[in-house]
Amino acid sequence: MILPIVAYGDPVLKKTGTDITKDYPELDQLIANMFETMYNAFGVGLAAPQIGLPIRLFLVDTEPFAEDESLTEEEQETLKGFKKVFINAQILEEEGDEWAFNEGCLSIPDVREDVFRKPKITIEYFDENFKKHTETYEGLIARVIQHEYDHIDGILFTDKLSSLKKRLIKGKLANISKGKINIDYKMRFPNQKKKR
């Protein structure tokens, strides 16, 4: 089922997510719905706060990046096969010199800005079967994970911009929060009441 994506300005996007257990109600269905929602909006990652749930769950599928011709064949192959669910994730380490990459977010449509992040991360998490993993990622995969991880900590990519950049996009952000935007996927805006 395709769920509405929560728009910029909703308080849930600023909450730190809580850990969940393997008994979380209908977890398998939730994960399936999140993947369907993400693909419908042509995203490469989606975090639970973006569908209104302040829990530490996000998922990633970097396949769309695999078509980038500026990447090596090896990088393309790595991106092509990368589809994962991250539950109760903790980034243990971020390493290297920060690099800029133009990021966007399904909760903040039509806004893209360069964000600086470290190129290498080590992360501990549970997969959808609640098996624990500790893994290291680099490059675009690390970046997508960092972006989604920020969501479960109540951080948006716009929070990482300079005060000048923030001022320049202030009007756009205000319009998004008011629902004054044309998008081709389901969204829920802060001033809309939740449907029961």
Automatic annotation (TrEMBL):
- CDD domains this protein is in? Pep_deformylase
Per the record, the domain of life is: Bacteria
Top enzyme class: hydrolase
Recorded hits in Pfam families, A to Z, give: Pep_deformylase
Q: Where is the active site?
A: E148
Q: How is the cofactor bound?
A: Binds 1 Fe(2+) ion.
The record, for Gene3D superfamilies, names: Peptide deformylase
Q: Tell me which UniProt keywords the record has, alphabetically.
A: Hydrolase, Iron, Metal-binding, Protein biosynthesis
Reactions catalysed, semicolon-separated, are: N-terminal N-formyl-L-methionyl-[peptide] + H2O = N-terminal L-methionyl-[peptide] + formate
Recorded hits in InterPro entries, A to Z, give: Peptide_deformylase, Peptide_deformylase_sf
Q: Which cofactor does it need?
A: Fe(2+)
- GO process terms (BP): translation
Write down the EC number. 3.5.1.88
One GO MF term attached to the UniProt entry: metal ion binding
* UniProt: Fe cation binding residues: C105, H147, H151
Role of this protein: Removes the formyl group from the N-terminal Met of newly synthesized proteins. Requires at least a dipeptide for an efficient rate of reaction. N-terminal L-methionine is a prerequisite for activity but the enzyme has broad specificity at other positions.
Family designation: Belongs to the polypeptide deformylase family.
- Identification of the protein by name: Peptide deformylase
Underlying gene? def
